[in-house]
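Z., the sequence and structure:
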Amino acid sequence: MAIDMRKETGQSGTVEQRIVYESGNEMAAYAAHQINYHIMGYFPISPSTEVAQFLDLMKANGQHDIVLIPADGEHGSAGVCYGASTGGGRVFNATSANGYLYMLEQMPVQSGTRFPMVMNLVCRSVSGPLDIHGDHSDLYFALNTGWPIIMCRDPQSVYDMNIIALKLAEDPEVRLPVLVAQDGYFTSHQKRRVMTFAKREDVQKFVGEKPPEGFKHVFDRNNPITVGPYMNEPDYINNCYQQSLAMYRAESVYDRIRQEYAELTGRDYPILELYRMDDAEVAVFLLNSSSEIIKDVVDQLRAQGIKAGSISPNIIRPFPAQAIAEALKNVKALTVGDRADAYGGHGGNMSLEIRAALQQYGNHTTMVISRIYGLGGKDFYAEDGIRMFDFAIDAVAKGFVEKPYDYHGITAGDPSKAPKRVLEPMKYEDVKTGLITVTPDEETGKVNVRIPPLRALTKKAKRIAPGHGACPGCGIFSGLELFFKGIEGDIVALFHTGCAMVVTTGYPYSAHKATYIHNLFQNGAATMSGVVEMFHERKRRGELYQYGLQDDFTFVMITGDGGMDIGMGPAIGAALRNHRMIILEYDNEGYMNTGAQLSYSTPMGHRTSTSNVGKHQGGKVFHHKDTAQIMAATNIPYVFTGSEASPQDLVRKAAKAQWYAQNVGMVYGKILITCPLNWLSEDKDGSTIIDQAVNTCFFPLYEVERGVTTITYNPEEKGKRVPVGDWLKMMGKTKHLSKPEYAETLREFEHEIERRWNMLKAKHDNPYL
């Protein structure tokens, strides 16, 4: 029996709809797949990562035709999207936090050249220090980029606004890229009942089945155009003026589109969401998810006889200044809650803009209180909402605002609970055994290394303390500790963002016994370059003698989880400058810290959360990056690969790496490590899987010393080479490759392994290759 959804849901729209129960991220992806965009350029970052994951899963099952392009970082993904938009098609993206800041330079490029697209900003704290939970510190960086910004308070509005956003972006009066903002984790991961268009064709009828005609793009050979030319004054200021006019037109265009959408669906998103504001004397202004909670507080206060109301905008660029001023004309005091601070501005961004709006429209009586709240994902409860109203009620009672700007929800410090050192600094003799000798060979120009039996190094102090939060069976720390067995003396370590960083540091605790620095994926190598050069300069000036220094530090940058994708440019820059440091990459074949998305080191055919397996897709569709060979091409003095399955080989290479890093220049090393959680393998099989990866010649063990390649373990000569298929059967992520329908992918992967192995053997045989 057919059910009338309009009766069931109370909706009054005219279009057929259906109910789903999904999260904000799922609804962003759902809307995108119904629109069937041409291109999505993306890079994973929590909490927006799921949007691409859901779209990839739908793609594997043949539910849409969107071309999903995994970029090398957010800056690259923004470039992919911009380039695609110049081609006149429909473009989509999603990002968060520092990822958005990394692409920030591209945002005015796209709006300034007037190419539409839709991007979801799943709002999250901007580090440092690192925090992956929701606030609006990334959103506020978007305010001056020239993109209209529409807001989403729940998964229903995420779905609806994603559809409205495209129509707004492509409107002839606007023609600007549009940002759709939802709260990370509060909205992005919480499942709610959502009404959707039942038929894709109804969505496409609303937005237009194809992009509107009559606008320039780069594929019209009869009308070639120049995109983004150099401009002098007065053209540049005129261009900005035209863009400004389009931005302000976006308010009325949005108002028209949302009314059209309301007729179809019964769901309306007015420019301002006003709740019980008709006679309100005190009010609270909040964005997104918190604005729903505050409505319950309004009802509680109304029951007590307090004339309370709340305001929340559905669009903040252009800022609805006149509408806000009109809504506040009878309000005596307003508390504005900002989920980010405009440091040094005496208020959060929304409070500053509301004050300006009131001034502009002649309201000199409404008192405005600014409170910064909810940073780093701190929850907002009804009790917090009551405090927000208390600030306004107090101002009305006193006739003035006692504290116009402050933080709400901070915790008073307690000196007795100050962090205390748990791990004492390692003694010099604990890390300097004298058992490893490294001597340069003047005749060959290479370095000779002698290491003792590994049991002699077991008493050497571990650089990372037990008790960190790594998953059972994680190969990162066994691999790192084995490498560190070959390093004598003190180190300074820098860890990129990634699993190794996240599980070893959680304020106020740290598992690192040696000095440790963190910086983001894209800038670790540059950061460590600065550390290295500062050390040598301060040592030269005689400024470090009082700090107990006995030998030079060894500077080690640990990267993984795709850090040599987004961080590749700075790593190559550091290599070309030849700083005396080691870059050590742990390769787990994916971005495991954000949920096992594909990285450029993920092999062909391997399943990840953004290279799913289905009837239309069989895992990753392109080959893995050979980072070691890329770094060798920079002509740094020493490059190596290693594996904990060959411990003596790895310790010997570590000792050699230290000598080169202290005496000659930069070193790059790559170790393959297992990740049972996302490889879908048994914890106990990690070392065996890594050993088999070496014996298939997929991950050969070799070194490139002063440009000369030497294979340090040849499974063919040892009679231990195994078929690639035997290795792939050991992991759940690759078991599908044994099926007949994926035979061609397996053959291509095997061929590539053989090609690279034969090239490596040729380099081993000929020092000039």
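Confidence is low (pLDDT under 50) at residues 1-6. The two ends are 74 Å apart (CA to CA).

Let me know what you think.
H.
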